[in-house]
Amino acid sequence: MDKLFSLQSLDHFVLTTAQPNEMEAFYSKLGFEVRKDGARYEILAPAFKINLHIKGHELEPKAVLAEPGTGDFCIEISTDKSLQKIEEELRIQGLNVVSCPVERHGRRGTMTSIYLRDPDKNLVELALYPRSSNKSCRRFWEKTEPGT
Fold it and tell me: Residue 142 catalytic?
Protein backbone atom coordinates (compact mmCIF):
# COMPACT_ATOMS: atom_id res chain seq x y z
CA MET A 1 0.00 0.00 0.00
CA ASP A 2 1.30 3.46 -0.93
CA LYS A 3 1.89 6.04 1.76
CA LEU A 4 -0.84 8.68 1.78
CA PHE A 5 1.47 11.45 3.02
CA SER A 6 4.75 12.30 4.75
CA LEU A 7 4.91 13.88 8.17
CA GLN A 8 6.69 17.25 8.19
CA SER A 9 6.49 19.18 11.45
CA LEU A 10 4.19 20.52 14.12
CA ASP A 11 2.37 23.62 12.85
CA HIS A 12 0.33 24.59 15.92
CA PHE A 13 -1.60 23.30 18.90
CA VAL A 14 -4.40 24.79 20.96
CA LEU A 15 -4.66 25.63 24.64
CA THR A 16 -7.98 26.63 26.18
CA THR A 17 -7.74 29.50 28.66
CA ALA A 18 -9.94 31.36 31.09
CA GLN A 19 -7.38 34.17 31.46
CA PRO A 20 -5.99 35.24 28.09
CA ASN A 21 -4.26 38.40 29.34
CA GLU A 22 -2.27 36.50 31.97
CA MET A 23 -1.36 33.82 29.41
CA GLU A 24 -0.25 36.51 26.96
CA ALA A 25 2.02 38.05 29.62
CA PHE A 26 3.49 34.65 30.60
CA TYR A 27 4.39 33.58 27.07
CA SER A 28 5.71 37.05 26.24
CA LYS A 29 8.14 36.72 29.18
CA LEU A 30 9.38 33.45 27.65
CA GLY A 31 10.19 35.31 24.42
CA PHE A 32 7.17 34.46 22.28
CA GLU A 33 5.51 37.05 20.07
CA VAL A 34 1.81 37.20 20.94
CA ARG A 35 -0.90 38.59 18.70
CA LYS A 36 -4.68 38.60 18.83
CA ASP A 37 -6.48 37.12 15.83
CA GLY A 38 -10.26 37.26 16.07
CA ALA A 39 -11.52 35.03 18.89
CA ARG A 40 -8.10 33.63 19.74
CA TYR A 41 -4.61 34.68 20.64
CA GLU A 42 -1.66 33.38 18.65
CA ILE A 43 1.58 32.70 20.50
CA LEU A 44 4.29 32.60 17.84
CA ALA A 45 7.56 30.67 17.89
CA PRO A 46 9.99 30.39 14.96
CA ALA A 47 8.72 26.94 13.84
CA PHE A 48 5.21 26.61 15.35
CA LYS A 49 2.47 28.51 17.13
CA ILE A 50 0.10 28.01 20.04
CA ASN A 51 -3.49 29.15 19.59
CA LEU A 52 -5.30 30.25 22.73
CA HIS A 53 -9.05 29.67 22.70
CA ILE A 54 -11.16 31.39 25.35
CA LYS A 55 -13.08 28.92 27.57
CA GLY A 56 -16.72 28.92 26.53
CA HIS A 57 -15.87 30.53 23.17
CA GLU A 58 -13.68 27.82 21.62
CA LEU A 59 -13.47 27.52 17.86
CA GLU A 60 -15.01 24.38 16.39
CA PRO A 61 -14.09 21.65 16.03
CA LYS A 62 -12.37 21.41 19.39
CA ALA A 63 -10.90 18.76 21.67
CA VAL A 64 -13.39 16.68 23.63
CA LEU A 65 -11.87 17.98 26.88
CA ALA A 66 -11.00 21.61 26.07
CA GLU A 67 -10.20 22.81 29.57
CA PRO A 68 -7.59 25.18 31.00
CA GLY A 69 -4.64 23.37 32.56
CA THR A 70 -4.79 20.18 30.48
CA GLY A 71 -1.70 20.97 28.37
CA ASP A 72 1.70 19.32 28.87
CA PHE A 73 4.33 20.11 26.23
CA CYS A 74 8.03 20.64 25.63
CA ILE A 75 9.71 23.53 23.82
CA GLU A 76 13.31 23.17 22.68
CA ILE A 77 15.41 26.25 23.44
CA SER A 78 18.93 27.38 22.63
CA THR A 79 21.11 29.57 24.82
CA ASP A 80 24.67 30.32 25.86
CA LYS A 81 23.51 30.74 29.48
CA SER A 82 23.39 27.94 32.02
CA LEU A 83 19.96 26.51 32.78
CA GLN A 84 20.57 27.41 36.43
CA LYS A 85 20.87 31.07 35.36
CA ILE A 86 17.74 30.79 33.22
CA GLU A 87 15.85 29.21 36.14
CA GLU A 88 16.98 32.07 38.40
CA GLU A 89 15.88 34.72 35.86
CA LEU A 90 12.49 33.06 35.35
CA ARG A 91 11.91 33.05 39.12
CA ILE A 92 12.92 36.74 39.32
CA GLN A 93 10.31 37.47 36.63
CA GLY A 94 7.71 35.83 38.88
CA LEU A 95 7.15 32.76 36.72
CA ASN A 96 6.05 29.52 38.40
CA VAL A 97 9.14 27.28 38.05
CA VAL A 98 8.28 23.81 39.35
CA SER A 99 11.63 22.06 38.94
CA CYS A 100 15.30 22.84 38.78
CA PRO A 101 17.13 21.61 35.66
CA VAL A 102 16.70 17.84 35.26
CA GLU A 103 17.90 15.38 32.62
CA ARG A 104 15.19 14.02 30.31
CA HIS A 105 14.95 12.09 27.05
CA GLY A 106 13.52 13.95 24.08
CA ARG A 107 13.03 13.29 20.39
CA ARG A 108 16.76 13.80 19.68
CA GLY A 109 18.13 12.12 22.79
CA THR A 110 19.29 13.36 26.19
CA MET A 111 18.35 16.92 27.09
CA THR A 112 18.18 19.06 30.22
CA SER A 113 14.82 20.60 31.11
CA ILE A 114 13.22 23.18 33.36
CA TYR A 115 9.49 22.84 34.08
CA LEU A 116 7.10 25.73 34.60
CA ARG A 117 3.36 26.16 35.06
CA ASP A 118 1.65 28.82 33.01
CA PRO A 119 -1.23 30.84 34.55
CA ASP A 120 -3.75 28.11 33.60
CA LYS A 121 -1.50 25.42 35.22
CA ASN A 122 -0.41 23.83 31.92
CA LEU A 123 2.96 22.11 32.28
CA VAL A 124 5.55 23.86 30.09
CA GLU A 125 8.92 22.16 29.65
CA LEU A 126 11.87 24.20 28.36
CA ALA A 127 14.51 21.77 27.02
CA LEU A 128 18.12 22.28 26.03
CA TYR A 129 20.09 19.69 24.06
CA PRO A 130 23.86 19.58 24.59
CA ARG A 131 26.06 20.97 21.85
CA SER A 132 27.60 17.82 20.41
CA SER A 133 29.11 19.40 17.30
CA ASN A 134 31.75 21.45 19.11
CA LYS A 135 34.27 18.89 20.40
CA SER A 136 36.79 21.53 21.46
CA CYS A 137 34.40 23.07 23.99
CA ARG A 138 34.26 21.50 27.45
CA ARG A 139 30.88 21.13 29.07
CA PHE A 140 30.31 22.26 32.63
CA TRP A 141 30.02 18.65 33.86
CA GLU A 142 33.32 17.51 32.30
CA LYS A 143 36.33 17.54 34.61
CA THR A 144 39.46 19.15 33.32
CA GLU A 145 42.73 17.32 33.71
CA PRO A 146 45.96 19.20 34.41
CA GLY A 147 47.68 20.08 31.15
CA THR A 148 44.53 19.77 29.01
Answer: no
